[in-house]
Amino acid sequence: MNNKRQALVTGANKGIGLAIAKGLAEAGFFVWIGARDRSRGEQAVAQLRNIGLDADLLDLDVAVEDSVYRAAAILSEQIGALDILGMCGPTSMVTRAF
């Protein structure tokens, strides 16, 4: 397991999300790039790694409940807990009311 503090940034494959992920990685975090588009997510991870930053891809569509649960299970198994969660991806998850 990585001993660095852990951050997940959703919508981090471009724009503000990627800039936040880069800033966190520069501050010493291991950054998980949450992206629903795997190809763009891989490009973002490569961009960060190419400048010596620690990052990995997490397939995640925050608008799809099953995707959120899968991502949570992966992170729980691999790192236990997050230190930071940055929500930069669009959300429109609809669930039943209580």
UniProtKB/TrEMBL annotation:
InterPro entries: NAD(P)-bd_dom_sf (IPR036291), SDR_fam (IPR002347). SUPFAM superfamilies: NAD(P)-binding Rossmann-fold domains. One of its GO terms (molecular function) is oxidoreductase activity. Pfam families: adh_short. Keywords: NADP, Oxidoreductase. Belongs to the short-chain dehydrogenases/reductases (SDR) family. This is Uncharacterized protein.
